[in-house]
Amino acid sequence: MRATVIHGPHDIRIEEAPDPVVRKPTDAVVRVVSACICGSDLWAYRGVASRTAGQRIGHEFLGMVEAVGSEVRDLRPGDFVVAPFVWSDGTCDYCREGLQTSCPQGGFWGEVGSDGGQGEAVRVPFADGTLVKLPKETADEEKLLPSLLALSDVMSTGHHAAVAARVRPGATVAVVGDGAVGLCGVLAAQRLGAGRIIALGRHEQRTAIARSFGATDVVAERGEAAIEAVRELTCGQGAHAVLEAVGTEESMRTAISIARDGGAVGYVGVPHGGSAGVDISQLFDRNVTLAGGVAPARAYIPELLPDVLSGAINPGLVFDRTVDLDGVPDGYRAMDDRTALKIRIAF
Amino acid sequence: MRATVIHGPHDIRIEEAPDPVVRKPTDAVVRVVSACICGSDLWAYRGVASRTAGQRIGHEFLGMVEAVGSEVRDLRPGDFVVAPFVWSDGTCDYCREGLQTSCPQGGFWGEVGSDGGQGEAVRVPFADGTLVKLPKETADEEKLLPSLLALSDVMSTGHHAAVAARVRPGATVAVVGDGAVGLCGVLAAQRLGAGRIIALGRHEQRTAIARSFGATDVVAERGEAAIEAVRELTCGQGAHAVLEAVGTEESMRTAISIARDGGAVGYVGVPHGGSAGVDISQLFDRNVTLAGGVAPARAYIPELLPDVLSGAINPGLVFDRTVDLDGVPDGYRAMDDRTALKIRIAF
Q1: Are residues B77 and B164 in the same domain?
Q2: Which of A274, A292, A310 is where one domain is finished?
Q3: Which of residues 228-247 of A touch B (CB under 8 A)?
């Protein structure tokens, strides 16, 4: 089969790779129908997160089950499935509690020795614990595929930010970051009944999507000016719930500063270095909670799926370009230089 | 009247001060019956937190209302009251929501221009919003006074840590810090139904109180060894809820490290500097929530009071020495060199 391989910074190639096979009785092999490129893949692409030369990449995909091991009970060849961005055994304490990202047997697609999502097929460990079955007929619904694929990571992660920030019906919400996760955070906040949603972002094409996802206000400023603008919109108080979807020191500082006293920052931007931007004294004086982390997509997919199927939410709108496998290196370039928001790969 | 005054590091004096009077129609004057010295007063005593020479000090007291302004509605002379460690107007958004520590008109006893709690009398701004009435007959119950006084700060703060750490019935709880706040955190966790309470501390006299407050395990180690010990006690997972009651970089690092994935750290130790000990990557990877801050004692006192009156909780046991006003400078010395846990002042 052919798969995406990272050889170093800015060096993404499509190469021949061994066809995945069932190695353990709990494995499945999935033929990928659609995958995508994540903003967090860019950390590897830019060399900020280190990778071994020749490592696979990509952690979001949906597809058809092609083969299953002897101990796989809930899936069979021909099932249409979506994969969360980490695999998990489905049986440990954490999996049973819905925090599958902490499964001791879990792992991340593309880590050394595993297949990545941006390839024609994937060996899936702990298939029962990992994969979520989709209605078979949806495999032919081209218009639905992007939104189903978004459940794999970006929509589940936006939802995690909203849950961590304790978005409640009627709450004033602010979302820092107009990338695909931030936009899905807007959608998640709207879905949870937020009364007002302030999207921070300066790219008009993106803030237009934010508005279509439920943002009531857009703040194009950054840093101090953004903080002032949000305070002005909220009678000086700030937002009950702030979703931080970037992961830089500046974005965290902004997020904490625009949170209302007693409110919460739900952060899902992968943090880079130390305690970037976390001012503990500010959190302390104002009783602002800091919550979030890596999203347990496996727990959220079943919860969000009905709303995708009904059309109540359409997170697939974050994809603004579709490529085939050969177009993936170009896709990375486009996301890196921000000419594309999020790239979908159709096989 | 006579009051405690701080002139500089290690320079606490008892001096003559003007008798407080009602200045604003919402003021009351309270004749102090009992007050105490707080661990956080030691930051000023040691010169870590700066004070203006001649500033009053002390922020925990109970006493008799002596005079009220014309707009005070709920209190009258002769009422027995306890004061939370900040005053608040009782009418703003934050006060109505129970986050009185964020009241824009609020303030801290002893700040420049205000009376401190460690004096014979105190002018209380926004008396209706600030003071909590106690049953009159309790003023004569010598045995109850220490526990009623503890509501002013130390017990309310321990409770805040437990609430912020999301202590639930049956939860495994760890408490970092064996000072008076940490001990009250143990008591609060027990009151909220914790299944297991691990107290971290090395002072036997203090851990004995922790045990009497409900601690099921005591870990005397520090740093890495403490982390290992807690992990061993919890099948390698850590505690669902961790109460951080110290405020140093090491204690915060320990608290985060012993939290179970998906759990929460409730911190109430006044932080000193930057983002001391907060490792955002560890929080992110394990979905550990960081919550807490300055405790809204005004909201908690009415909730905790019935349990003090019934004897269900006895937080006054954290006081291990009582002095009169002249004994206060000695009391600071004793708390500073850790020969006393917490000093009560009887007038």
Answers
A1: no
A2: A292
A3: 237
Residue B36 pLDDT exceeds 80: yes
All residues at 6 or more sequence positions from A235 whose CB lies less than 8 Å from its CB, including other chains: none
B181 interfacial to chain A (CB closer than 8 Å): no
The yes-or-no verdict on residue B273 having pLDDT over 80 is no
CATH number at residue B256: 3.40.50.720
Q: Verify that B149 and B28 share a domain, yes or no.
A: yes
Report pTM. Answer: 0.96
Do B134 and B175 have their domain in common? no
ipTM value for the complex: 0.96
Asked if A58 has any chain B CB less than 8 Å from its own CB, the reply is: no
B188 and B113 within one domain: no
Chain B: closest CA distance from residue A61 (Å): 22
Residue B138's domain comprises: 2-153+296-346
Q: Is B271 on the interface with A (CB under 8 A)?
A: yes
Chain B residues close to A289, C-beta within 8 Å: 164, 289-291
Give alpha helix (H) positions in chain B. Answer: 41-45, 93-97, 127-130, 145-150, 154-164, 180-191, 204-212, 223-233, 249-257, 280-286, 297-309, 328-336
**Domain final residue, candidates A247, A262, A292:** A292
Domain count, chain B: 2
Return the residue of B nearest to A295 by Cα: B287
Contact of B93 with chain A, judged by CB distance below 8 Å, is answered with yes
Whether residues B164 and B28 fall in one domain:
no
CA–CA distances in Å: residue B121 to residues B1, B114, B124: 7, 11, 9
Dump pLDDT digits (tens) for A40-68: 999 999 998 889 999 999 999 999 999 99
Question: Are A262 and B94 within 8 A, CB to CB?
Answer: yes
Distance to chain B for A296, nearest Cα, Å: 9
**Residue A269: per-residue pLDDT:** 86
Looking at the complex, does the CB of residue B97 fall below 8 Å from at least one CB of chain A?
yes
**Cβ–Cβ gap B291/A289 under 8 Å:** yes
pLDDT digits over A139-191, tens only?
Answer: 999 999 999 999 999 999 999 999 999 999 999 999 999 999 999 999 999 99
Looking at the fold, whether A39 and A20 belong to one and the same domain comes out as: yes
Nearest CA in chain B to A274: B279
B80 with B124, same domain? yes
